[in-house]
Amino acid sequence: MFQWQQYELGVCYYPEQWEESLWREDLRRMKDAGIGTVRVAEFCWVLFEPAEGEFHFDLFDRFLSLCQEEGMKVILGTPTATPPAWLTEAYPEVLNALPDKTLLRHGARRHYNYNSPVYQRFCSRIVEEMAKHFASHPAVIGWQIDNELNCETDEFHSEADDLAFREFLKKHYTTLEDLNRAWGTVVWSGVYTSWDQIFTPRPVLNAGHNPHYLLDYYRFISDSCISFAVMQAEILRKYLKKGDFITTNGLFGNVDNHALTEKALDVYTYDSYPDFALGLDRSPKTSTDLNDRKWSRNLIETRSVCPHFGIMEQQSGAGGWANRMEMPAPRPGQLTLWAMQSVAHGADFISFFRWRTAPYGTEIYWHGILDYDNRDNRKLREVKAFGNLLQKLTPVCGAEHVAAFALLKDYDNEWDAQADVWHKRISSGSEKEIFAASQLHHTPYDIVYLNDDTALSALSRYPVVFYPHPMIMTESRASLLTEYVKNGGTLVVGCRAGLKDANGKAVMMPQPGLLQPLTGTDVQDFTFVSPAEENDPAYPIFHDILTPMEGTAVLARYQTSYYAGEACLTEKKTGKGKTIHLGSAFSRDTVAKLFEHLVILEPFRNVVDAPKDVELLLREKGGKQYLFALNYLAQNQTLHLQKSVYSVFEEKELCGDVTLPPYGIAVYAL
Ligand code: GAL
């Protein structure tokens, strides 16, 4: 893996959209603001190859020379997210399609499919030509594959996808009999008698598609996306200078980002646009749904893919497109807060989107650092000030995040929940509430994705792991969890755990299935909970009524409904550890009580007493610890420092009450 050795600032720049006479001045103004890297070219296919097989690189040759002269480093994007019109008109088989097979036409972006051999051939060639031409250039430091794989749509329905889907299934199942059995197609006469009868999901009536088929379809998309990235990475690697990296940007649906990173990349980058969570909402108090810091959830996910990641696109201005999306500008201080949120969560490279707002096109209102008038403004001043703050943080670069617990996830359950609304409601509700409890009680966590090869060491770093609703459970994951618990870990699972096999089919076993030896519970009855029965209509969503088996302690019992008095929370010891089984979805109050019970609540309480609207994160390097405090509110927040700590930004020792201004941040060396 590649890791930045010091914090670096970057910016997304589109030389092709501006007069060349502006380039040098732009680069100099960037440098003056502390920006040392530009990300360019990711949408420039038609400039590089204006007609089939004709390559022109002169515009970027001139730009790269200027970058070299000005000492600016460059990340080049491969332009495969935007096939030119000459290509899609001559070879429409490269296009993606809607479920009804209507082709998605030229004019926007990401309208191609991963599986067309024709598209793969054209992509391989443009990537190879670019790599041959630019990779040795001294200004180039890295490559971005495509742009935001699976963004805008994460479903593919072209003819090439149908063919590739059948091949994917043949490889997995070998025979149609096995496939029919795995999907349970005997229901509703769904049996396939020829591979040619299988397509990507086409329109059906509202009963919807068979969920086991959908689960394999999502796996297929992920596989296609990863193969497409690997194809490009293999070409780039032939030409890459020593020390240069390959990355891609984004965190989108229907792709196993962990496998993508392992197979194709040196480092992962994320595009952070916190305004998406806020929309037009700028009310001073948003702590109920925590939209003001919802992006921290995405950053925790990103950290699970790559602990020391980069931000390829960090929001610097108001978001907006001409045809949809209207967002307010970041308030003074908010640009800095959002960029520091990325750093606190593990980003060592922050590249802002974008240098200057485009005066034309779909993104005419997607505002960058500079506005149309090109004058210095408050956003540029904030970027510069942020760069100065990063200089003070130099010793923190590359530090490790210190988590109180881990949230376990896996792609099987992620995608099963897309095909199964019962699963989705429970798991997305619980994840949101675990995040809320973690934030409001300053108990930070990491996410760990499990697969069948996950090593015990990935879990044993954490005293407690929450695996809220692993409805799909496999033998290998159950035995990994058993080892973890036997060795002293605490596993917390919620309702519906262990219900399904790897195809998403319910297992004919007492619940929680393969986890029963660990939980020591037997689920003999279960029900969705009517919102009318509960004070809080959002929770607890579902109830598994738990019958404790021998050796299992009951920690809490249901108080309402026909199962009042039955167990809803249990604890069972195995080896040196234990398993907690909650019969429902998780609410923030339940999670906070579990934190307390498991002695992981508020690990920083001896250092600081912080209000709920402040996020606290701890990073550790070389035996030194650094506590980040981020104020998401547009008003002052008071922290009480319980002991003397060194304020990295103010460069002095502090103790007692300190004030964080609106959107203010602090870093304390402990
Ligand atoms: C990202 C994309 C950029 C730009 C930005 C703002 O998703 O990678 O190219 O479109 O959003 O809309």
Keywords:
binds beta-D-galactopyranose; 670 residues; 19 helices; Rossmann fold; 7-stranded antiparallel beta sheet; 32% helix; 8-stranded parallel beta sheet; Immunoglobulin-like; alpha/beta; globular; 24 strands
Secondary-structure map:
Blueprint (H helix, E strand, L loop, with lengths): L7 E5 L10 H10 L4 E4 L4 H4 L9 H13 L2 E5 L7 H6 L26 H18 L5 E5 L14 H15 L2 H8 L27 H29 L5 E3 L9 H8 L4 E4 L2 H4 L16 H11 L3 E7 L18 H12 L1 E7 L24 H15 L7 E2 L3 E5 L1 H9 L1 H20 L4 E5 L7 H4 L3 E4 L7 H12 L3 E4 L22 H4 L1 E8 L13 E7 L3 E6 L9 E8 L2 E6 L5 H10 L10 E2 L4 E8 L2 E8 L5 E11 L4 E9 L4 E5 L1
Parallel strand pairs: 1-2, 1-8, 2-3, 3-4, 4-5, 6-7, 7-8, 10-11, 10-12, 12-13, 13-18
Antiparallel strand pairs: 9-20, 14-15, 16-17, 17-18, 19-22, 20-21, 21-24, 22-23, 22-24
Helix pairs in contact: 1-3, 5-8, 6-8, 8-9, 8-14, 12-13, 14-15, 15-19
Could you characterize the architecture of this molecule?
This protein has 19 helices and 24 strands. The relative contact order is 0.09. The model has no long low-confidence stretch (mean pLDDT 96). It is of the alpha/beta class and 670 residues long. An eight-stranded parallel beta sheet has the order 5-4-3-2-1-8-7-6, with helices on one face. Strands 9, 19, 20, 21, 22, 23 and 24 form a seven-stranded antiparallel beta sheet that branches. A seven-stranded mixed beta sheet has the order 11-10-12-13-18-17-16. Among the domains are: 405-597, Rossmann fold, CATH 3.40.50; 608-669, Sandwich (Immunoglobulin-like). The structure holds beta-D-galactopyranose.
